[in-house]
Amino acid sequence: MADPRDLAVILRAERIQQGRAQKYISRRLGIGQAAMCTLERGHGLPTPSRLLVWANVLGQQVIVRKGWEWTAPVHSITDLIALLRDQRLTNGWNYTEAGERAGVHPRQISHWEAGRMTPSLPGLARWLTAYGWRLDIRAAAPTTPRSTP
């Protein structure tokens, strides 16, 4: 994800392909239709949590990707932050080094990991980039119905 707005463009195209009304999606996100229009046109950014709901409503999944290979599906922002924290520790980075590589103040990394603040989508994108990762959208794996005896 070079630009977090790319995710909104992908989800808008998916909504149109599915024939879903913008009003339906905006209601599921808990925002007005005008705000939804703004997001879809790339003139604003959803919160990371709303991005996850938006993708889910359309049967899509937000994933972490490294190069062309996907690393992990993102089920919640808390899980994504835990993944980023674990990678920071694996790399042996302190908050200062992680912050410098992500282009954010080290205190932000600390606050995000401790759950005192939620990163914005651009902040999250910078943090992911520090590890060579990015967010992407893919179709969610279909759930197979259980067979009945």
Instruction: Classify the fold: give the CATH topology.
Output: 434 Repressor (Amino-terminal Domain)
Structural class, by secondary structure, is alpha+beta
Biggest β-sheet strands, sense, barrel: 3 strands, antiparallel
Identify the quaternary structure here: single chain
Individual helix count: 8
Shape assignment = elongated
Q: Distance between termini?
A: 45 Å
Cα radius of gyration in angstroms? 17 Å
Word description of this protein:
With about 150 residues, the chain is α+β, with helices and mostly antiparallel strands. It has a single domain, classed as lambda repressor-like DNA-binding domains (434 Repressor (Amino-terminal Domain)), CATH 1.10.260. It is about 55% helix and about 15% strand. It has helices at about 5-20, 20-30, 35-40, 50-55, 75-90, 95-100, 105-115, 120-130; strands at about 60-65, 70-75, 135-140. Strands 2-1-3 form a 3-stranded antiparallel beta sheet. A hairpin with a 2-residue loop joins β1 and β2. α6 (about 95-100) crosses α7 and α6 (about 95-100) packs across α8 (about 120-130). The model is unreliable at about 145-149 (pLDDT under 50).
